[in-house]
Design brief:
The chain has 242 residues and is α+β, with helices and mostly antiparallel strands. Helices cover 36% and strands 32% of the residues.
Amino acid sequence: MALFSEKTFPAILIAVGLVVAGWSVGEGLKSFRQADRFLTIKGLAEQDVKSDFAIWILSFRRAANNYDEVRRQLTDDREAVVSFLLSQGFSLADIERRPLQITDLLARDFGQQDVAFRYTGQAAVTVRSMDVDAVAKAATSIDPLIQQGVQMSQEGPMGGSPRYLLRGFNDIKPVLLEQAVRNAAEQAQKFAADAGAHLGDLRRANQGSIQILDDDGGDGYSSGQTIGKRLRVVSTFVYSLD
C-alpha cells in the first residue's frame, strides 16, 4: 500500500510550503526589527565670531578726450587714495597700487562712435589688513577723497565695500564639531528615553556641512559684508538602540 495517495500528496506539499513561507516571513520580520533599531540624528553647533581679515578695493574712474589727461588724473587720484589710507593708519605693506586701465572708445570694433569722451580709464588701490576695525572706520570716512575730486566707483570687481573674511576658521572648527557631537548625544539620549529604549553605541558619523554666515540674520553663506560672522556646523550621527 502506498504511503501517500495521489489525492493526499498535493495537500502535503501545500502544507509544507505554508510552513516554509511562515518561517521566511518570521525571519524577515525579525531582521526588519533588528535593522530598524538604529537612530539617525543631527547635531547642531553655532558660534558668533569676528572676522580677522579684510580686503578693500578702492576703485576710481576718469574720462576725457586726451589720453595723457586721463592718465595724469588717474595717477594723481591713485596717490591721493594712498595718502588717505596712510592717514588712516595703514602701512605701505597693507596697500597695493593696481595698474591703470585706459580705453580708447573710438578704437573699438563695436559700440557707438559719437561718444562724449574718447578715453575712459579706471584704477584701484587694494587694502589687505588684519585690522578689520580700521578698515571699517576708513570705509565710512572717504569724504575727503570725494572733496578732492576723486571719482570713486562702487561697481564691478574693482570697487565696492570692504569684504570681511575669517581666516582662522580651522582653529575654531574642532570646538564646533565637539559641540555638535555633544548636542547629538543629548538629543539621542532623550529620544531613546522617550521611546523606552536604551541608547547603544555610535555606529556612524558624518561631519556634514560647515557654514560661515553673516550675523545679519540671513541663512545664506557669508557675502563678506559684515564683520561679525556666525559659524554653523550640522553633523549626522547614527546610534544603535538596544
